[in-house]
Design goal:
Length: 358
């Protein structure tokens, strides 16, 4: 990372060097690597689609591990979220309490002074923090399809222009000094503060926070495709769908199989500190998982996340008494990968020679 890059040519202040070769236990294929680096070159948000458990959220963490020294801000979208929730919160009640203090003692006079400056009650949230941070940072907007249908369109200006207004902070010329605000918001750069100050010839009525003079945040947006996204929103994104890799006998299938093996081994160690995997059990689990992926399901099909947890369960010391089985024995714990009773019953019958059903 360097701070000397031309921000017009490199909008994030970073070279497009994402590899996805093990950082944070993540192994990306060449198509995903290219999509990430294109988003970095063009300064566009990266919209990542795919089934739950395929590795969309983990991608943002891997990008942060490789490119921004693990500077990652995670905005987990809820159905009730509005864009304002991701920009800032304003503590109106705290300011009201401070303003009502009338005693002249030193402690109370400080509260009164605080109440006179509305900046003291602003708390930046996820997107707001990413906009003001002077360093390259990754912002994850996770599961955007959970939000209201208007939410993606309401994000357009902030994603494009990286600025927003704080409506609770009016700007009569020269009335508010920003030093206290700068002390409170440790990561706010001088450029952002200057942009927030109103000049005498500026007709603006509210404080404007402007992140255009600093590296853009790398924005990774995930979707499970539970609802469609607006075309105007999609136009602003580099989109990529993470498909589950084909596991056949072709050279590409073998490469995918090896990548899946690396993902399981790395995450068993990283997430659960399980590093002594039995080679034969691991290979059998991978082959059974391939068969599971080929079957039809009433509920959710098992994905990479479920495979990792199954392999961990087969090796976890807490289950030592249950895991005393031979390498060629029927494997236990497999129902944890399935979410529907009908699927558990069907798989138990279809693979009864390989899976424990008692």
């Amino acid at each position: 990372m360097t701070t000397e890059l031309d921000l017009k040519r490199y909008p994030h202040g970073l070279l497009p060097l994402f590899q996805g070769e093990g950082s944070h236990g993540y192994y990306a294929d060449s198509k995903l690597q290219k999509a990430v680096n294109l988003a970095i070159v063009l300064g566009r948000p990266l919209l990542v689609r795919g089934e739950p458990g395929i590795g969309k959220t983990a991608l943002a963490r891997a990008i942060a591990a490789e490119l921004t020294d693990n500077r990652l801000i995670e905005w987990r979208i809820k159905s009730s979220d509005r864009v304002r929730d991701g920009l800032y919160q304003y503590d109106t009640i705290r300011r009201l309490i401070d303003a009502q203090v009338k005693a002249p003692d030193s402690t109370n006079s400080t509260s009164v002074q605080n109440a006179a400056n509305p900046y003291n009650y602003v708390r930046f949230m996820y997107l707001g923090k990413a906009i003001i941070d002077p360093r390259p940072v990754v912002l994850l907007i996770d599961e955007i399809d959970k939000a209201d249908l208007d939410f993606p369109n309401d994000l357009l200006r902030e994603l494009d222009d990286l600025w927003f207004e704080i409506y609770e902070v009016p700007l009569p010329v020269g009335e508010y000094k920003l030093e206290a605000f700068a002390d409170q918001q440790k990561t706010m750069s001088e450029d952002v503060l200057l942009a927030a100050a109103r000049q005498a010839n500026d007709p603006g009525e509210f404080a404007i926070i402007n992140g255009q003079r600093k590296p853009r945040p790398i924005i990774v947006i995930t979707s499970n495709d539970e609802k469609p996204l607006p075309q105007a929103f999609l136009r602003r994104c580099i989109t990529h769908t993470i498909d589950f890799p084909t596991l056949d006998d072709s050279p590409q299938g073998e490469a995918n199989r090896e990548r899946l093996r690396k993902i399981v081994i790395a995450n068993a160690k990283r997430q659960f500190n399980i590093d002594a995997l039995r080679p034969q059990i691991l290979e059998r689990a991978l082959k059974i998982f391939e068969k599971l992926r080929e079957m039809q399901y009433a509920g959710k099909k098992p994905a990479t996340a479920e495979l990792i947890e199954w392999v961990v369960a087969l090796h976890h010391p807490s289950f030592e008494a249950l895991n005393q089985f031979a390498d060629d024995a029927q494997l236990p714990h497999w129902p944890m990968m399935l979410k529907d009773d009908a699927d558990i019953h069907k798989i138990g019958e279809a693979l009864s020679d390989e899976l424990e059903t008692t």
